[in-house]
């Protein structure tokens, strides 16, 4: 039953539904995630055969969460941390749920297939919304999204922020484009989501040689391209580097990949100039966005130096900068590592690296056993860590749930059942 619920959960993950109560938004998937966690705990207590998580995985998870909790003790106003604490303490333990659910290769494949089918469906929906701007105009489609769609899928408060800070629109070469985001309120979150799933799709292709996974991979990566997220582009470059490493290690450069790239030339040529211009602007320090981002990084770094070990406390940074209004504005460092450092200190950032690093090391060990799927997991991590130099998606529900899947997958591949009487 838990496997079935997990498959349904991952299929519908990109299709969010949010209930709004005044100024508060409650994502339905937050409730579903908490329900899954309690279902797993209850089922684990009632069953005779218990699958225990690896000591390393569990200890790193709870050590990191413990340091985050400890950082709140040093916060000026601990109550400001409650919302983010609840989020982290109810979402990241799902890593252990996925580990238990994926107790066989067949179960693992079912979960990943569900996620890929759901993600590919969302990408196709995103293509439709993206194409609508060529017939109705980018501004018209944008206003429809923020007035009629996002209040349902992102909540009233967040949709108002999207309307106020219109990151769904981007100016490239003097023309305004609507970025592909499907039902995501933020194109950067969409870029993370589609990019990571694209990597897993290629991993499934490498292990099964099924062409449908290859097709899904290119659909998802193309959706990532259309988000016009510069961090997303660099993430794709990093993920591509992992796949090149795979070909180099396997000593095979199949001609089919060249043919596939040639087949992708027409759409890439159509979008080539906007994509290329957007990508190259990442390296232009005179670009307004780059100037603003560097200022954000400098401010976050200087703040971290004042509170190096435990930081300001999770959820405290914006309020520390703007007392009284910080909680109402979407202010962060636009860099995952600086955001974690400034709010949880050096210790919180270090244990985050240890936690994710354990998954990366285990993925490499699985690859040495010729489990080619884990090249996709490594590519997913490369994409996530590279993109995170420019964005912070640790509180984006669909993205962080995919991260918990990446954390669990390498360990699930080698788990052993421990019967308990």
Structure description:
The protein has 421 residues and is mainly α. It has helices at 2-11, 28-46, 55-72, 82-91, 94-101, 105-136, 138-153, 156-164, 187-208, 211-225, 230-250, 255-263, 265-280, 288-306, 317-321, 336-368, 373-387, 397-412; strands spanning 18-21, 24-27, 49-50, 169-172, 175-178, 418-419. The protein has one domain (2-419). The strands form three sheets. It has a two-stranded antiparallel ribbon. Helix 17 runs antiparallel to helix 18 (397-412). The chain is globular. Pfam families: Wzy_C. The chain crosses the membrane at residues 30-47, 54-76, 82-101, 122-146, 158-178, 190-207, 213-245, 257-276, 340-360, 372-387, 393-413. It is a multi-pass membrane protein. One of its GO terms (cellular component) is membrane.
SSE blueprint and pairings:
Layout: H1 2-11, E1 18-21, E2 24-27, H2 28-46, E3 49-50, H3 55-72, H4 82-91, H5 94-101, H6 105-136, H7 138-153, H8 156-164, E4 169-172, E5 175-178, H9 187-208, H10 211-225, H11 230-250, H12 255-263, H13 265-280, H14 288-306, H15 317-321, H16 336-368, H17 373-387, H18 397-412, E6 418-419
């Amino acid at each position: 039953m838990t496997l079935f619920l997990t498959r349904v959960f991952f299929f519908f993950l990109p299709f969010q539904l949010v209930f709004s109560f005044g100024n508060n938004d409650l994502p339905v998937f937050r409730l579903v995630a908490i329900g899954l966690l309690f279902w797993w705990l209850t089922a684990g207590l009632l069953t005779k055969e218990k699958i225990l998580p690896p000591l390393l995985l569990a200890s790193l998870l709870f050590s990191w969460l413990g340091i985050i909790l400890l950082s709140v003790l040093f916060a000026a106003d601990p109550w400001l941390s409650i919302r983010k604490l609840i989020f982290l303490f109810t979402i990241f333990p799902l890593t252990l749920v996925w580990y238990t659910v994926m107790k066989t290769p067949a179960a693992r494949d079912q979960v990943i297939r569900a996620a890929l089918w759901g993600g590919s469906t969302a990408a196709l929906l995103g293509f439709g919304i993206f194409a609508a701007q060529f017939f109705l105009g980018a501004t018209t489609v944008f206003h429809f999204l923020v007035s009629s769609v996002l209040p349902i899928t992102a909540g009233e408060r967040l949709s108002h922020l999207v309307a106020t800070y219109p990151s769904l629109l981007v100016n490239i070469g003097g023309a305004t484009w609507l970025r592909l985001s499907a039902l995501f309120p933020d194109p950067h979150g969409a870029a993370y989501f589609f990019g990571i799933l694209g990597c897993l799709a290629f991993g499934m292709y490498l292990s099964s040689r099924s062409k449908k996974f290859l097709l899904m991979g290119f659909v998802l990566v193309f959706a990532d391209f259309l988000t016009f997220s510069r961090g997303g582009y660099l993430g794709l470059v990093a993920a591509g580097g992992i796949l090149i490493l795979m070909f180099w290690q396997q000593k095979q450069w199949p001609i089919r990949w060249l043919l596939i790239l040639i087949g992708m030339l027409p759409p890439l040529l159509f979008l080539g100039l906007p994509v290329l211009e957007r990508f190259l602007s990442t390296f232009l320090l005179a670009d307004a966005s780059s100037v603003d981002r560097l200022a954000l990084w400098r401010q976050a770094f200087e703040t971290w130096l004042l509170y190096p070990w435990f930081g300001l406390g999770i959820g405290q940074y914006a309020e520390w900068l703007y007392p009284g209004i910080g909680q109402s504005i979407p202010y962060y460092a636009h860099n995952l590592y600086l955001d974690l450092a400034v709010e949880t200190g050096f210790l919180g950032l270090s244990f985050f690296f240890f936690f994710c690093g354990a998954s990366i090391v285990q993925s490499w060990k699985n690859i040495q056993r010729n489990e080619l799927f884990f090249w996709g997991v490594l590519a997913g991590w490369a994409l996530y860590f590279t993109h995170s130099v420019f964005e912070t998606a640790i509180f984006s529900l669909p993205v962080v749930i995919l991260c918990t899947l990446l954390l669990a997958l390498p360990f699930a591949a080698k788990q052993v059942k421990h019967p308990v009487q």
